[in-house]
Amino acid sequence: MAGSSAEVPAVDDIRQEARRNTRGRFEQWAKNPTCDANTLSAVHNVRLDKAAKAVGLEVSFGQSPFAIARGNRFEAGLFYDEAVKLRQALERKSCLPEGSVGFLDLRLKLNRGTRVTTIDQALRETEAWLRRIAVEPTSAESIVAAPMIKIPKGVILPEALLIIDAVTVTTTVDGRARVTVGEVKVFPDRGGHTDPQQLASARAQAGVYEHAMRLAVETLGLTDEIEISTHGFLVFTWPGSNSPSVRANEDLTYQAIRAERGFDRLEQVALGVVRDDDFSADNPALIKRVLDAPTDYSEACLSFCDLAPRCHARATAADDPIVLGGEVARFLGETTVSRALELMAGVAPADDREADIQRQLVG
Ligand code: SF4
Questions:
Q1: How much distance in Å is there from the Cα of 176 to the middle of ligand 1?
Q2: Which ranges of the chain have pLDDT less than 70?
Q3: With a 6 A CB cut-off, is 30 part of the ligand 1 pocket?
Q4: In angstroms, rounded to a whole number, what is the distance separating the alpha carbons of residues 308 and 34?
Q5: Among residues 234, 247, 219, 223, which one has the least CA distance to residue 93?
Q6: Selection from 332, 338, 337 nearest residue 354 by Cα
Q7: How far apart are CA 287 and CA 131, in angstroms?
Q8: Do the beta carbons of residue 291 and residue 54 sit within 8 Å?
């Protein structure tokens, strides 16, 4: 017995590592789904900090053990004692009705879960849970921690697993189960002053979860029985504490559409590569592919990608207005920074569009 219990964790640890990577790769990809280098990095499991290091850039994002540990502690605290802390915060924001009951813990024991020991068990139990609430919505626990789904399309190698941080289950007016996805982030909720890049990345991630949950329900043929809410909730921290601050009713429609497009792009990229058994983050051939891929720099890059200095420098060299931020880039469109400066200095516009830009810039 001792022998077999020693073997199981070893295998599970390996798969667990793949799972952790998949989740992290999804999160990274969701921050800039229109950059091919980022997409390739997610598909190939090539870390962007390793790619940055290969071209001599200073690495600052990588993995911060401190941040990971704090995130794990925060998440564990939310679900402690039948998720009492999370429930209070969700009821306060009317995400759940007062006096809601029931907690289903699908977290792996390795992730401080209470029962589930293997990935296969988590997948099986998640499916059983969905099938159960489809026929018996009143039996549903109101909070479910870490349901795990296999993305029906094989978009991420080697395992297309996705763990949703938390979901709530309520009932629709016609008595069906409504599942609402939640995304947990350890960063502080500062009301209207919350870091916009962090907020945007949390919403993007929740949009990916929502879309993935919808795909899973479709695959099980339960679309008529289970409603996936188009709105989700975000769980941040109160500044300076580890208490949860819930942002309710976040409209994820746009993010879910982007997620769907991104999934298709991921699928194309995944189909275009030969499956490689070396999933190590520092395989030089794969790093080169990432470095050679087209990029699409944006402000969000500054929050997660160590290649940002290179891409920013390229955008500057290309006279691309994106270096002045997304809003300026949307406003200037094809017009370069130099041309915009000329127009501001009073040079005659070449066409109506330039005349319009000039009017708005100097007007
Ligand atoms: S910094 Fe460059 S490589 Fe990294 S995500 Fe942004 S555009 Fe892509």
A1: 42
A2: 1-23, 62-67, 152-160, 270-282
A3: no
A4: 15
A5: 247
A6: 332
A7: 42
A8: yes
